[in-house]
Amino acid sequence: MLIKILITGYFILATAILLNVIAFYLEIYTWYDLIQDINKYGVKRSIAAHNLTNIIWLYYIYPSLLALGYIIGDKVYHFLFKSCL
Questions:
Q1: Is 42 helix (H, G, I), strand (E, B) or coil?
Q2: CB-based burial, 45-81: b 16+ in 10 Å, e otherwise
Q3: What are the tens digits of pLDDT across the range 11-56?
Q4: Cβ atoms 19, 62 nearer than 8 A
């Protein structure tokens, strides 16, 4: 069970890093940018400053792709350890 958590966790982490690099090059907000803006300007002003691309990225695409990272990690775990039994 611990190995499954580690493998899926690493896949989620790798997915998050890749998505943050993509967001940086496309100049799309990441959660880190949002948190910095909230600390600087407050919640209402930070969320109001979002454009449609940032909203779709932060609340729909990013979480969906992180879930895909989990699914891939789970498939890798099952491939490596369940096929050996």
A1: coil
A2: ebeeebeeebeebbeeebeeebeebeebbeeebeeee
A3: 999 999 999 999 999 999 898 988 998 999 998 888 888 888 888 9
A4: yes
Q: What are the pLDDT digits (tens) for 48-80? A: 888 888 889 999 999 999 999 999 999 999 998
CB half-sphere exposure, 48, CA atoms < 13 A: 5
User: Side chain identity at 41, as an amino acid letter?
Assistant: Y
Helix axes 62-77, 2-26, angle to 10 degrees: 150
Burial of 11 (0-12, 13-18, 19+ CB in 10 A): buried
pLDDT for 85 equals 55
- Cα–Cα dist 56/63, whole Å: 10
